[in-house]
Amino acid sequence: MTLLAEAPPRxxxxxxxxxxxxxxxxxxxxxxxxxxxxxxxEAWARLIDRLISIRFLQEDWDGQGSVAPDPxxxxxxxxxxxxxxxxxxxxxxxxxASVNGTVVFEWHTPEGYQEIExxxxxxxxxxxxxxxxxxxxxxxxxxx
Length: 144
Known about the structure:
The protein has three helices and five strands; from the N terminus they run H-H-H-E-E-E-E-E. Helix content is about 30%, strand content about 20%. Helix 2 (about 35-55) packs antiparallel against helix 3. By secondary structure, it is an alpha+beta fold. It has one domain (about 15-140).
């Protein structure tokens, strides 16, 4: 497991960090190649709608005492989603509020599991677990 104890290099963006991860924009070899452009657009629209609904969650939204999502983290997550969509990344399989007020995107691919946890309007943490691995690679990213 790799943990970053410092901020990413100045000028680093979510896109540049993602390009360095094992998870890359959709291409002919990815699991999403069979999806039509219409299905991809619809998936992104649902994801953006979900982010809007997350913005309105209140304290104890899960009945277990979870804090309300930080509006700034939701704004950062929305900016990240729009950037990923523009860069032709596949839509996340799931986006949800976390119990500590952050927003989490999840992708499940044949190569492994990736999540991005957005903690502020400009900060996020990318986690990648390759198929068959028990270790997560963790990278701090900046939403540019």
